[in-house]
Structures are given as C-alpha cells and as structure tokens.
Amino acid sequence: MKEKVILFLCLASVAIGIVLTIKSVGLGENYASNVLRQHGGNMDTATYVIFLQEYINTFRDLGLVLMVIGGLGGVVVIHNSQN
User: Fold this and answer.
1) What does the alpha-carbon distance between residue 10 and residue 12 come to, in Å, rounded to a whole number?
2) Phi, psi for 33 (deg, rounded to 5)
3) pLDDT in the model for residue 49
4) What pTM value is reported for the model?
5) pLDDT tens digits for the chain (83 residues)?
6) What is the dihedral angle through the alpha carbons of 71, 60, 25, 75, rounded to the nearest 10 degrees?
7) 30 vs 35: CA distance, rounded Å
C-alpha cells in the first residue's frame, strides 16, 4: 500500500513537472506582467525582458526538477517492488 502511494506521488510529480515545463512561457509572461503592473505600467524594456526571461527559466527549471525527481523515484519504487 505504501509503495502505491509513493508511486502515485512520483507520477503526480512528473505530471506537474511536464505541465510547468510546457506552460513556463505563459506563466512567465503572467508573472512579468504582474511586476510591470506593480511598477505602475512603466518599466524599461530591458528590465522587463530580464524579469520575463528569469520567470520563464524558473518555471522551466522547476518543471524539469520535478520530472527528474518524480521519474527517478518512480523507477526506484518499481524496482524495489519487483524484488
């Protein structure tokens, strides 16, 4: 029973990671737009692009980390259940 829960959590982690990686551009744009609004709608273009790139990179990296950790965890759980 415990192995099934851990396997489910690993697969959920992989799924969330895939979604974050795919949606990283849209999420980054939303967060960068929020920063722009907080600055009253006025911001240097170069500064906005930096915020945009960093938010996109953050969501992409988080998604990749979740996919790798979830995938490796799933492999370990499956391998241990066969022994």
Assistant:
1) 5
2) -65, -40
3) 96
4) 0.86
5) 788 999 999 999 999 999 999 999 999 999 999 999 999 989 999 999 999 999 999 999 999 999 999 999 999 999 998 87
6) 0
7) 9
- Of 65, 54, 69, nearest to 21 by C-alpha is 65
Which two structure tokens, joined as six digits, stand for 5?
């829960």
Q: Which tokens belong to 73? A: 């965890």
- Name the nearest CA neighbour of 26 among 69, 56, 66, 64: 56
Would you give the DSSP letter of residue 16? Answer: H
Distances (CA, A) of 80 to 10, 47, 54, 73: 14, 49, 38, 11
